[in-house]
Amino acid sequence: MAANNSYFAVIEAGGTKFNCAIVTDERQIIAELRVPTTTPDETLSACVAFFRQQREAGYAFTRMGIASFGPLDLNRASPQFGSITKTPKPHWSHTPLTDYFTDALQCEVVIDTDVNAAALAEYQWGAAQQARVAVYVTIGTGVGGGLVVNGAPVQGLVHPEMGHMLVTPPAGQAGTCPFHANCVEGLVSGTALGKIWQQPAHTFGDTHPAWDGFAQVVAQFSHNLLVTLSAEKIVFGGGVMETPGLLDKIIAQTRQSLNDYIVFPAGTSLEDILVLPGLGTRSGLFGALALLQAGQ
């Protein structure tokens, strides 16, 4: 094994799985493990075991980046900094991610939301390079949105919670979010689609009638992001967005919704703004590395 003092531990902590890896500054993945998101004790202990094995194999690291599902407490003055706060994910509310890994692995931990981290990675290396205002949206188990402005992830009162933006549901549908009647997450997440249509979203097929209503909701979402943030790139990731043709439906509905109101710069179209990730399924994992690099 070649000598290398620049190994980093990174985690993309999702509602379905935790992706753990050892990476280099150049985004080379040395070792990787996917851990199912079950209970905090079971999931986090498996992650720690993986990273301890990597240290024993010679991949010493002193810093960890975590790109996590939320909501998160990102107030550095808070005793609960780095913890998941109130989440609909069973068992995970008030889980102290930062403290857990700091104590277990004796390393510095940098944390942000999975979508803020993914937005930063797409800005650095992916589909949102050069964008002054870049949004990353994941549509999978849940729906989240991260925002990077002039190369920095945005945090404010807490952090962006774009998935809970209120929208008008498709005719005959009602949202499934336990907190809000008709938010984006409660209508188009994989979890919501399964409840609304009484079958898992991955079984729909490309021509399932659910996709028309899905595109209608995500187009409202895109309309609101464009008129509110003046986003130069909105990158759509997550498992649901891997459905062929879905982005085209969203673009068509967004164009209809905007009704030519926004005058785009010459040579720019909605197809240039609403895009799929340049990093594929690695946006969140490399986002954890981007957080570390931004903090150096």
UniProtKB/TrEMBL annotation:
Catalytic EC class: transferase
Reported cofactor(s): Mg(2+)
UniProt keyword terms in alphabetical order: Carbohydrate metabolism, Magnesium, Metal-binding, Zinc
InterPro entries given in the database record: ATPase_NBD, Carb_Metab_Reg_Kinase/Isom, ROK, ROK_cs
Gene3D superfamilies: 3.30.420.40
Record has Zinc as a keyword: yes
Enzyme Commission number(s) from the entry: 2.7.1.4
Reaction equations catalysed: D-fructose + ATP = D-fructose 6-phosphate + ADP + H(+)
Xref: Pfam families: ROK (PF00480)
Name of this chain's protein: fructokinase
Originating organism: Alteromonas salexigens
